[in-house]
Design a protein that fits this description.
The chain is α+β, with helices and mostly antiparallel strands and 592 residues long. It is 33% helix and 23% strand. It contains 16 helices and 23 strands. The strands form 5 sheets. The chain has a 9-stranded mixed β-sheet with strand order 1-6-5-4-7-3-2-8-9. The protein has a 5-stranded mixed β-sheet with strand order 10-11-14-12-13. Strand 8 and strand 9 form a beta hairpin. The longest helix is centred in the C-terminal third of the chain and has 20 residues. The chain binds adenosine-5'-diphosphate and magnesium ion.
Amino acid sequence: MPLIRVLPDRLINRIAAGEVVERPASVVKELVENSLDAGASSIEIELRAGGRSLVRVRDDGSGMAPDDALLALERHATSKISAAEDLDHLTSLGFRGEALPSIAAVSRFELLTAADVTEGGYRVEVEGGRVLAAEPAARARGTTVTVRDLFFNVPARRKFLRAAETELRHVQEGLWGQALARPDVAFVVRHGERALIDAPAVADWSERVPAMWRNIERVFRFDAGSPAGRAEGLFAPGTGRGRPTLVLLVNGRVVRDRLLVGAVMRVLRSGGEFGGSRLVVELRLPPDEVDVNVHPAKAEVRFARAGGVFALVERAVREGVAASRGQVAVSGIDDGPPRSVGQVPPAAWGAPLDFGGRPAAGGLFPHPAYDATSDELPTALAAGTHQRRSTARPGPADTPFGRLIGQYRSSFLLLEDEHGLVIVDQHVAHERVLYERILRRLESGNAPSQGLLAAQVIEVGEANAAALGAVAPLLADVGIDAELFGPTAIRVSAVPPELDAESVQEVVEELLDRATRLDGVPERAREELREEVAASLSCRAAVKINHPLSSSEQHALLDDLAAAEHPYRCPHGRPIILRLSQQEMERRLGRR
Ligand code: ADP
Ligand code: MG
């Protein structure tokens, strides 16, 4: 006879589920964390319909004794901490004791587990928080959790689940992080009949990458250090469209800190062509400078030195991106000893970044700034050169930066002046021009706003939705018309004209998140938000690289750039202009 019991706090669990369980990916994440905490050496994940109809996680970890199996489904039941002090030195991924009861409250759930083969296994079946069965069952040591029909009893949340492939993408992105964080554990992932990941245990996360990321041609490693910590990572440039994928590890924990992710995405986007690229960043920070206990899904962390951490990550990523383009030194980043990045408040990242006192490479004055670390010329080539210096003068300047030679690879404008060759990155140049223009417009207090053809409903989570009332005037201030739409969503009906419909969700999420965290003086908050909007919009609206420009467009861009207040750095701190002096050219060509 099945034992039927109503969990005492079934309702609480359902409410908690709203926080912990957002979509199949969060179920997978929690279950895999539990398996890792249980010391599994091998984890198998089975999915159907992107995890909407089935998520099954099977491990060979410690398993649970029958009593513990029932207890594990009680709220705040955890074997991982027992006293408050434990919170200060957490070694496990879980500790809140919320995941299992929350998931069981909103699905058809089965836990099959065995701690000791001689004692036998145990099975608990729960449907929407109601225990339907609890009985002995056969199983080798380890645990299998099966979650079917997520949100079957919460239609409001079910409605917000996306198509199976979208949910699957979220699951996969999450698993990439977990599998990269724990290369010593084998991961096998199947979606229906299809094998998605088959990753045997390896020594190092970088060895994991080939098993995680299929169809990747080139991967670039980067590494940067500062007093704040160390950021290491891999960057695989994408060729296609679609959002870039980012895995962020902080001291071995997967983290999805919106602000940090936003910062990285902006570095990527400022390049213009990073759709579909993949990135993993591993941050190593002193443990007492990170607080992981701030978010129910443990996705967010708090940094004691947020400014330093942001600057470090941005610098590292910029290095990866630069490496992928074979122009490491140009971006002003090197492998030198850690430099002070100072206490830049996180609010400062709309402004040009501080590279730590190193003279800005790529600035217009003084020249030459070019110090690329390319290979030496083959001697055979050098030997055949004429030893005569070039004495030709440049043609008359027809732009503020010299004489326009033309557009190189539909991406860079080439010019010559009396010192040598001038190379202008058209995307960042345009971005700078737009940034200043948009910022001025926002500051003048008349932000144009354009109605969307179809208002967009955006799921932003309870906290952000609740904060909308306070930040709506700020958003309106920058041209975004948003209102509350249910407890966890907002409805956006108008946006600034530079924002295309596809980017609305991303930008609004980012801004809302940002706006809710701005504290203190309202005027300062407004200012920061304006900078944020200007940076975000200008990056999106600026002409991309690989985009042919007519001669008059090229001239117009250069004129606009010359009129800009800061023509040498894009809003994210990237150089706009690169110079190759005549002297340098001749030296490299063996003429000097
Ligand atoms: P938390 O992980 O925060 O402790 P959970 O609700 O995720 O909370 O799990 C509750 C308890 O159930 C854990 O503390 C652990 O003792 C046990 N548990 C959950 N999953 C497993 C597993 N795969 N193997 C062994 N024990 C598990
Ligand atoms: Mg857990």
